[in-house]
Amino acid sequence: MKILVCIKQVPDMESKFKIADNATWYDSGELAWRMNEYDEYAVEQGVQLKTQVADADLTVLCIGPQRVQETMKKALAMGCDRGVHIEDAESFKKDPFEIASMIAEFAKEKSFDMIFTGMQSQDRGSAQVGLMVAELLDIPSISTVVDFAFDAGKVTAKRELEGGIKAKVSCTAPALITCQLGLNTPRYPTLPNIMKAKRKELLSLPAADLLKVERKQETAKIYFPEKKGGGLVLEGAAGDLADQLIKILKENTGVLA
Amino acid sequence: MKALLVAEHRDGQLLTSSYELVAFAQQLGADSAMFLVGSDVSLPQYDGTLYLADIDKYSEYNPAVHKQLLLDVIAKEQPDIVVFSHSSYGWDLAPRVSVALGAAHVSEVVEVVDGAMVVPVCNAKLRRQVSVKTAKTVVSLQSGAFCLSDDPEGTPTVEKIDTDAAARVVFEGFEEAEAGGVDLSKSEVIVSAGRGIGKPENLAIIEGLATALKGDYGASRPVVDSDWVDHGRQVGSTGQSVSPKLYIACGISGAIQHLAGMKKSEYIVAINTDKDAPIGEVADVLVVADLKEFVPLMTAKLLV
Ligand SMILES: Cc1cc2nc3c(=O)[nH]c(=O)nc-3n(C[C@H](O)[C@H](O)[C@H](O)COP(=O)(O)OP(=O)(O)OC[C@H]3O[C@@H](n4cnc5c(N)ncnc54)[C@H](O)[C@@H]3O)c2cc1C
Question: Can you tell me the ipTM of this complex?
Answer without folding.
Answer: 0.95
